[in-house]
């Protein structure tokens, strides 16, 4: 759905966090980015969702230049961000989180009904009238993903979606993300390890200090090698 060319983004003038990043998200598939802490994974997802303004480069959406779009424009086009760190609305209940984000029309493929979401995340079913801040960390994480799925995204930006989840729930989340392309939605997911990404897709991008690699194969060790080379370069005394 999106094509990113030579994107440079930073929080301060002359201090780029992402440098000339290129990424092709036109295939309806799961696209994964792995990289160490601070590499810029969240920065990239926030930029694509319209929360940050690039200093250079272009983001194309089906031939349209959307480099400087706002979050509501990205959302209207079908881009949903499930942010890292469970950013819920503290004054809304679980049920309200899932009803305030109404599914967009004309996107029947990736629509998840509330019932379906509660099947995927049964822990939320017993918490429908609890407020965001009354949920456990894992429950908040589930609700963050459920809220994004309920908007029937064409592109789901999932920032470390399995962080802090018990292995069984993490596997459920992985299974839902894997199904999304069959429902017509593209996924861009960030993960801390190649192993976690390999469970979702065999082709991953490696992000190291703002530089994004071409897609590399996860299963044959290419991605691990890129990460290891980077760590050796930045910390030559590491084992
Ligand atoms: N709001 C901000 N203001 C200034 N600098 C920021 C801000 N958010 C992130 N940064 C910096 O940008 C860089 C990339 O951060 P980012 O959160 O994108 O990394 P990440 O790859 O998502 O890391 P993690 O794996 O820890 O989530 C880091 O050096 C970070 O300190
Ligand atoms: Mg992050």
Automatic annotation (TrEMBL):
GO terms for molecular function: ATP binding; ATP hydrolysis activity; branched-chain amino acid transmembrane transporter activity. Pfam families: ABC_tran. GO terms for biological process: L-amino acid transport. SUPFAM superfamilies: P-loop containing nucleoside triphosphate hydrolases (SSF52540). Signal peptide: none annotated. Belongs to the ABC transporter superfamily. The keyword ATP-binding applies. Residues 2-234 form the ABC transporter domain. Keywords: Amino-acid transport, ATP-binding, Nucleotide-binding, Transport. It comes from the Bacteria. This is ATP-binding cassette domain-containing protein.
